[in-house]
Design a protein that fits this description.
By secondary structure, the protein is of the alpha+beta class. The protein folds into 3 domains: 3-78; 86-146; 151-229, no CATH class. Helices cover 52% and strands 10% of the residues. The chain is built from 7 helices and 8 strands; from the N terminus they run H-H-E-E-H-H-H-H-E-E-E-E-E-E-H. It has helices spanning 3-27, 34-40, 48-76, 87-92, 95-109, 115-146, 223-229; strands at residues 42-43, 46-47, 151-154, 158-160, 167-169, 203-206, 209-211, 218-220. A 4-stranded antiparallel beta sheet has the order 3-8-7-6, with no helix packed on it. Strands 1-2 form a two-stranded antiparallel ribbon. It has a two-stranded antiparallel ribbon with strand order 4-5. The two termini are 42 Å apart. Bound molecules: zinc ion (2 copies). One zinc ion is lined by residues 192, 194-195, 197, 212, 214-215, 217.
Length: 232
């Protein structure tokens, strides 16, 4: 719960409290009470009571908006986790480029050692980096592009026990409620990348889109892997 979520929630509670409070207070006021007479007085077509209710509703609405906003921004931050499903292609490829930039920064930042040593070290580093950048991409690319990968579209955090329907956090092996094994593990290439349940339990939505039968994460399974698993 972030401070923004808290203020949003508080505001909406205050708004609702204001409406309920004033209506409750009003209904129990004696008919001739000056406060009741004041609340009954109309101003530009509406009574003061209605104005207070409208203000309460507005405060509560604003509070709700702030809360929803805070919740949404709270959720979008960990969205970066999704990219971990394609680590090989996304994380490795740009790396060599960064390494090329490093030596030029280090030259300016580390003049602490005697010049002679520094230069030798730098040349060695540079040679290593050149070898890395030249050799790796060629070999890696060839392997990566041939290998189809399962892509996670939406990542769930709970698994549904197929025996009793109870929710268990991803990573559990036995159900907290009924004690049974949630699923019999398969080899990783034929398993859900989120909860490791066998993909034979998944359900097709459309095209290559599937929903894991245990954690209900949405996943894209390339046709090659569909064949390998034997799902349609
Ligand atoms: Zn269970
Ligand atoms: Zn799953």
């Amino acid at each position: 719960m972030t401070p923004l979520m808290l203020t949003g929630m508080l505001l909406s509670f205050i708004g609702v409290g204001l409406i309920l409070g004033i209506v409750f207070y009003y209904t129990f006021l004696p008919i001739n009470d000056p406060v009741r007479i004041f609340l009954d007085t109309s101003y530009v077509g509406l009574t003061y009571l209605l104005y207070i209710i409208i203000i309460g509703a507005a405060v509560s609405g604003v509070g709700l908006l702030i809360y929803i906003r805070a919740v949404r921004t709270g959720i979008t931050i960990p969205a970066g986790e999704y990219s971990y499903t394609r680590p090989a292609s996304i994380i490795r490829r740009p790396a060599p480029k960064k390494e090329i930039l490093k030596p030029s920064i280090e030259k300016t930042v580390t003049p602490l050692k005697p010049k002679g040593e520094n230069i030798v070290e730098e040349i060695e580093k540079e040679i290593e980096q050149i070898i890395e950048t030249v050799e790796k991409p060629v070999g890696e690319k060839a392997v990566e592009e041939k290998k189809p990968m399962i892509e996670v579209i939406s990542k769930a955090t709970d698994m549904v026990c197929p025996h009793c329907g109870k929710l268990n956090p991803v990573g559990s092996t036995k159900c907290e409620a009924c004690g049974k094994q949630i699923f019999t593990p398969e080899e990783p290439s034929k398993s859900c990348p989120v909860c490791s349940a066998p993909l034979t339990l998944s359900q097709k939505i459309s095209g290559d889109l599937y929903v894991c039968g245990i954690c209900f994460s949405e996943i894209r399974i390339p046709p090659e892997i569909q064949k390998l698993i034997g799902i349609k």
